[in-house]
Specification:
The protein is built from 11 helices and 36 strands. By secondary structure, it is α+β, with helices and mostly antiparallel strands. α6 runs antiparallel to α8 (about 340-350) and α7 (about 325-335) packs across α8 (about 340-350). The longest helix is centred in the first third of the chain and has 19 residues, at about 1-20.
Length: about 650
């Protein structure tokens, strides 16, 4: 009987899908799709999603009660060899207490042989792997066989969740273009869901037929959403629908499921993997206790505990808002998720007399928090929050390079939820700190055009973190060699203040190189060691907001000592360029005094970012800015 019912469901979905838009059956392919060479609405794409279809129904299943059942099917055309990675599929699901299941996974690929015949390759059942990720989630993974440039492949699967309260989000857009995307929902009318949409294109919503409560949501010809320079990530910009159960209304039952931030806070504090997990005691911290005995300053106690956890714990690169291993096990193994590590930090801060609280946050890559929708799934990790008068410390001890007093850059200017029964609230994670690099150098020019000199660079705030990261990974000397076409190499490098995060990271180097030349003319650069690279804003259009992460300031000053056999043929003019809202200021001053040429270049990015709508103005400003940076002092050999 169960097999018969499932067959009816499959036929039901297939019939009505094809009544909406005629799609080929699973295992049937149009030869024209195999012969396709490019995507007409997004040329140059590595792959094209020909169609992506999901059909979900919430229904009552006897003794199992209400559950949602869905069937998903996706077909992809590989246009370039780089697009073959789309055939490596991973599907995550909530496996704790078998709340969710993924079954009936099928896959197939289609290719043309030398004679133009269609060759089919079915995926074997043994190629599908199911493994746990943590104690709550598992992952189905598989690779579609015989996929190469020109291949069309597809896969499908069945998804069941033993609950009526959850509808998976539907993503119309991916990093590659999608020709057709359709989501069908059949929900009993007494289940009311709030729908949160992110859309920039026309959405078709169609009922199947008269008397059917189900509805199709359809979108067509959706360009791929690509990573753009200085973007916080594409998550916030993916065109999608998200659902949240808000109310159940029936003749015999009425319940409001719309939650609030205080209600979420209360539930988290009582959860064994959240609030109760932090209450566990940790052993083996006598060395920390000994250090704290002589420290009375609250700031120094916070700093000491933070550095202790930062030094002792290794991040396993996993996220999540609940404790995965439990803080006792994570501490014993000195390894854990970002939340495990910060739960340990909170526990030890509390033991040190600090009123530390969990802070739910969403990294920029995960997406921003909409404060009007109290949805817990908007967050992807927990950090530590400690107030000291008007100052609040936001700390992530999983990051080896961020100091205790800087808000982690990947959550800067976002919102976080302080999980505290007495004073739980949403807070804006602002900061007055910035990224600041200053360089001073002196350089001699030899008669043959060779260069040699000394430079001192000071990196403060967020710039210190980046330089320290490169230092620890053996990449700092190489970093100074990257001067965008300027022939300069760092011969030696000395670093000071490495172990005191409250001081700028001082970098002293000896360098050498040579000027570019053409005939008797030599071209002397002045924007060395800025590491600004090439102009990042050259695309005609932009979808995502510009995010510099934090305000930035660059300053380079120095002196060139010229030999007698060179004269200055052309000296860049003193200039100042300001964006109309004064959020970016460039200033350049040049001065020639005998054989000594001195200059100062300052670029001050006072804003941390700009809306995508401002892109035309930013693009033009950066075009002019890089024209100025690319100018050279022109010397002529006598």
């Amino acid at each position: 009987m169960k097999r018969y019912t499932l067959l009816l469901v499959l036929l039901f979905f297939s019939f009505f899908l094809q009544s909406q838009d005629k799609l080929p059956s699973f295992g049937k392919v149009d030869k024209a799709d195999l012969e396709m060479k490019d995507c007409d609405f997004d040329p140059g794409a590595a792959a094209l999603v020909l169609f992506d279809v999901g059909e979900l129904e919430i229904k009552y299943v006897g003794s199992s009660g209400w559950q949602s059942e869905a069937f998903y099917r996706i077909r992809i055309k590989v246009l370039k060899s780089s697009g073959t990675e789309k055939a490596q599929v991973k599907l995550r699901y909530y496996s704790k207490e078998r709340l969710e299941e993924i079954t009936n996974v099928k896959g197939i690929s289609f290719n043309l042989d030398e004679n133009g015949n269609i060759v089919e390759t079915e995926m074997e059942n043994k190629a599908v792997f199911d493994k746990p990720i943590n104690k709550e989630r598992s992952e189905i993974s598989f690779a579609i066989p015989n996929v190469k440039a020109g291949t069309v492949f597809e896969y499908k699967y069945r998804y069941v969740r033993k609950s009526f309260s959850y509808i998976p989000s539907w993503y119309f857009q991916t990093e590659v273009p999608v020709k057709y995307s359709a989501y069908y929902l059949n929900i009993p009318e007494f289940f009311q869901f709030t729908v949160q949409s992110t859309l920039r294109q026309k959405l078709e919503d169609q009922n199947k037929r008269s008397g059917d409560a189900g509805k199709w949501y359809i979108m067509r010809n959706i360009p791929g959403l690509k990573e753009e320079p200085y973007s916080a990530g594409i998550t916030d910009y993916v065109q999608r629908l998200q659902f949240k159960l808000s109310r159940i209304v029936s003749p015999t039952y009425n319940e409001d499921f719309q939650t609030t931030w205080p209600r979420i806070t209360e539930q988290l504090l009582q959860d064994e993997d959240f609030g109760l997990a932090i209450k566990k005691n940790l052993r083996g911290t006598s060395d920390l206790d000994a250090k704290l005995l002589t420290i009375t300053s609250k700031k120094e106690r916070i700093r000491t505990v933070y550095q202790y956890v930062q030094m002792n714990m290794q991040w396993d690169e996993s996220y999540g808002i609940y404790s995965d291993k439990g803080i006792k096990d994570a501490w014993d193994k000195k390894n854990g998720s970002v939340t495990d590590i910060n739960f340990i930090l909170i526990r030890l801060l509390r033991d040190a007399g600090m009123s530390a609280k969990p802070l739910l946050v969403s990294t920029k890559e995960h997406g921003s928090v909409n404060t009007f929708y109290p949805f817990l799934n908007q967050f992807n990790c927990v950090m530590a929050y400690v107030e000291d008068g008007e100052y609040a410390y936001v700390m992530n001890a999983a990051d080896k390079y961020n100091p205790f007093h800087l808000v982690p850059y990947d959550i800067l200017y976002t919102y976080g939820l302080v999980v505290d029964k007495a004073n739980g609230t949403l807070v804006k994670l602002d900061s007055d700190d910035k990224f600041e690099n200053s360089v001073f150098f002196s350089c001699g020019v030899a008669e043959d055009g060779k260069l040699s000199g000394q430079a001192t660079a000071n990196s403060s705030g967020y710039a210190r973190n980046i330089r320290l990261h490169k230092l620890k990974n053996g990449k700092l000397k190489e970093f100074f060699d990257e001067n965008n076409g300027i022939n300069i190499k760092a011969d030696s490098l000395t670093v000071n203040n490495e172990n005191d995060e409250l001081l700028p990271l001082e970098q002293k180097l000896e360098f050498s190189g040579s000027m570019q030349s053409s005939g008797d003319y030599y071209f002397l650069p002045y924007n060395m060691f800025t590491n600004l690279g090439k102009n990042p804003f050259i695309d005609e259009k932009r979808v995502t907001d510009i995010d510099f992460n934090y305000p930035r300031k660059y300053m380079v000053s120095g002196s060139w000592f010229l030999p007698d056999n060179f004269t200055v043929s052309e000296l860049p003019k003193n200039t100042k360029m300001i964006l109309p809202d004064t959020s970016i200021i460039l200033s350049r001053v040049m001065q020639l005094d005998g054989r000594i040429l001195s200059f100062r270049l300052t670029i001050d990015f006072r804003a941390s970012g700009y809306a995508a709508e401002s892109y035309p103005y930013i693009k033009e400003f950066f075009r002019q800015l890089y024209m100025i940076l690319d100018e050279r002092i022109v010397l002529k050999k006598k």
